[in-house]
Amino acid sequence: MKTALVTGAAGFLGSHLAVRLLAQGYQVIGIDNLSTGTKLNLSGLNGQERFRFLECNIAETDCLNLGELAGADEIYHLASAASPKFYQQFPFETIQANTTGTWNMLELARRAGAKLVYTSTSEAYGDPTVHPQPEEYRGNVNTWGPRACYDESKRLGEVYCYEYAHRYQVPVKVARIFNTYSAGLRNDDGRVISNFVYQAIRGDDITVYGDGLQTRSFCYVDDTVRALMLMMDRDQASGEIINVGNPVEYTVLDVAKLVQRLAGSTSAIVFRLLPQDDPKVRRPVIDKARRLLGWEPEVGLEGGLRKTIAACRRLLAQGGLP
């Protein structure tokens, strides 16, 4: 039986990944310091025989030296605040998770002979001047602004991965993840889909920043998790950076209108000032994912939003919002 270590296991994506790994027969060790992850996300995991949760900070050396981690076969390094609200609230912790924390997980992989998938981000492209974005594009990132703590620390995390891949031949794979969604996103994290869905089903104003003509690409969580597991499994992905996202592009305003319609909401759409350094366009080129992984998204935005809205209504009715 293989053992998978998932950092950020109490987060949105980490908890979904842990559930999928358990379903595939893995022994799963989840790590999280619960700074932005929640115990509610672990509710479907705790008590399962093959799951163990450790509350610790991966940026601290003590975490690296935990004996339970020595037998890990695969390491999925997802730990980091991922929404602007939280990484701007915790900038230094975000930098540490993506730099020192990444270094620690790579060192653990080297010692254990484990494979590692590092979840980087489409924010590595910044406010892109190349559209859509292939992996070869080096980005247009502002190092002196409120998003830099996340964007630049993720980029430096990629550098650590490069060094361990080339100096120590650690089988490292880097996923640049584009917007991922489903039920389970915190209702207070400030991300587009979670904002729109919770506002719509509560009848609150749906808040669009700027004129809403900036574009995004949205990938349903099941597709993203499947891509991460394929990256871990495929040797040809070692030493590669691979975009993971849906290449279908929407304006933010169109998404707001779609959520409004699918939720049958009477909410008004209102406009607020656009935050500094907010990207104007975002769409992945996924040719490499198709070629190396045989992967592409299967869930379209409308279908994914219908599932998300239905699940969020159930959570709201139960009083169990994350």
Automatic annotation (TrEMBL):
Limits of the NAD-dependent epimerase/dehydratase domain? 4-245
User: What domain of life?
Assistant: Bacteria
**Cofactor(s) this protein requires:** NAD(+)
Location in or out of the cell: Golgi apparatus membrane; Golgi apparatus, Golgi stack membrane
Q: Indicate how the chain sits in the lipid bilayer.
A: Single-pass type II membrane protein
GO annotation, cellular component aspect: cytoplasm
User: What name appears for this protein in its UniProt entry?
Assistant: NAD-dependent epimerase/dehydratase family protein
Organism in which the protein naturally occurs: Paenibacillus oceani
The lineage, from the top, is: Bacteria, Bacillati, Bacillota, Bacilli, Bacillales
